[in-house]
Amino acid sequence: MDIVTYDILFDVLKKVLGKRGMSVDEIRELTLYVLNFFGYDDTVVDNILTPTDRHVFNTLEELGILTTIEDEVTVSRGKLWRIHYWTFKKDNIEKILNQNEECRDESPEDIYRRLFEEE
User: Fold this and answer.
1) Cα dihedral 11, 15, 19, 23 in deg (nearest 10)
2) CA pair distance 30, 52, nearest whole angstrom
3) How far, CA to CA in Å, does 66 sit from each of 12, 73, 115?
């Protein structure tokens, strides 16, 4: 996956948050909200986020959709400056997108057993 598009992120959020009772309209708004930070890039600098934005990103990190990375840069006079970024976890996003295809191959007994194991 080269880039996380609106359709991809919407489908992933729908699969993850739809199970938790979030409406389709709320998921659409959240998808646009998140993509407005990323645009066509894979990373967002943490400094631009407000506490509310950071809370949303932390929630998406808990769901396995985002992760943080850190970069260290030496600035004048040898001081070390740490820059924190948010990035998509593309491997998890692909895994979530492909979950339905995996479920089709399972028998109904396997699906119900797996449901009880997840709780």
Assistant:
1) 0
2) 13
3) 12, 23, 24
**pTM attached to this predicted model:** 0.77
Q: Is the pLDDT of residue 104 over 70?
A: no
Q: Determine the Cα–Cα distance for residues 33 and 101; give it in Å rounded to an integer.
A: 28
Say whether 13 sits in a helix, a strand or coil: helix
Mean pLDDT, the chain, integer = 87
Query: pLDDT value at position 2?
Result: 84
From the list 54, 35, 34, the residue with the least C-alpha distance to 46 is 54
Percent of the chain with pLDDT over 70: 83
Residue ranges of alpha helices (H) inside 18-107 are: 24-38, 51-62, 90-97, 99-104
Cα distance between residue 8 and residue 21, in whole Å? 20
